[in-house]
From TrEMBL:
PANTHER family: SERINE PROTEASE FAMILY S1C HTRA-RELATED, SERINE PROTEASE HTRA2, MITOCHONDRIAL. GO terms for biological process: protein quality control for misfolded or incompletely synthesized proteins. The keyword Hydrolase applies. This is Trypsin-like serine protease with C-terminal PDZ domain. GO terms for molecular function: serine-type endopeptidase activity. The keyword Iron does not apply. It comes from Acetivibrio clariflavus (strain DSM 19732 / NBRC 101661 / EBR45).
């Protein structure tokens, strides 16, 4: 075999292998350290916590945000109360967490953050179609539901955060934020959301880690969450919001993640809105 033929054979074997490896690295959107989720939410390793009703799926275009003229005051409140609540007292906060339904067939959760009808959720829950919210005010399934139309106010696609609003909502309260830098490893937490479409489902767990994600951290928790929990509340034992549940790692046990309160407050501080 002459030298030229040998070089051609080696090139034919090695170059495609290197090219294939390079392409696989580009498209493998998996980064354990940064807990990345790809833009289309189809990664087999990281699963967003939404439910899809195929019968309701439509071809509606992506929802655009409304940008009212000016900011009047803060959208949220921070609680500095150090008193820990009983589990039954925390459970009473569930009436400030809603189930979100969209005309595109997506179902998730949202958190009421003030008395003017502003609700935090995940962008991937509300990025397509018309939006409705259901609040349940009571202890059992026989109590009345508030079913209301909502509109998208603003969002951060990269951080997967969205703010929606409903008119004329009066529940007599809302959920306040935990102070910045107050999340502690090992502390007890409570998740509230519409797991598998079951509104106001509570689960208890702990903060198991803080993981780097974009400019900040996401909270890792072993509180049991599943499809339908996206955008739901993650509370500490004081009943303060420390994050919104967002995605989980499939194939592992209790590897669930929430966007931290620091990220949420940073987003809200930049939002353009009006409470006229």
């Amino acid at each position: 075999m002459n030298a030229k033929l040998f070089v051609l054979i080696v090139s034919a074997i090695v170059i495609p292998s290197i090219l294939g490896l390079f392409i696989s690295l580009i498209f493998a959107d998996i980064n354990i350290g940064n807990a990345q989720v790809n833009d289309n939410y189809i990664d087999v390793k990281y699963t967003p916590l939404v439910s899809h009703n195929v019968a309701l799926m439509s071809e509606e275009t992506e929802t655009t945000s409304t940008t009212p003229p000016k900011v009047k005051n803060k959208l949220y409140s921070v609680s500095y109360d150090d008193k820990e609540l009983l589990d039954t007292e925390i459970a009473e906060l569930k009436k400030y967490v809603c189930m979100i339904l969209t005309s595109s067939g997506v179902q998730g959760s949202g958190v009421l953050i003030n008395d003017e009808g502003y609700i935090l959720t995940n962008y991937h829950v509300v990025n397509r179609g018309s939006i409705w919210v259901d609040f349940q005010d009571g202890e059992d399934s026989g109590t009345k539901f508030l079913h209301m139309k909502a509109k998208l106010i603003d969002f951060d696609k990269n951080e997967d955060i969205a703010l929606i609003h409903v008119d004329n909502l009066s529940l007599g309260g809302y959920i306040k934020f935990a102070p910045e830098n107050s999340i502690k490893l090992g502390e007890q937490v409570v998740s509230i959301g519409s797991s598998q479409g079951l509104i106001n489902t509570l689960s208890f767990g702990h903060v198991t880690a803080l993981r780097p994600y974009n400019d900040g951290n996401v909270i890792q928790t072993d509180a049991a969450i599943s499809a339908g929990n996206s955008g739901g509340a993650l509370l500490n034992k004081k009943g303060q919001l420390i994050g919104i549940t967002t995605f989980k790692i499939t194939g592992g046990e209790n590897l669930n993640f929430a966007i931290s309160n620091e990220k949420l407050m940073r987003f809200l501080d930049k939002v353009n809105y009006s409470n006229d």
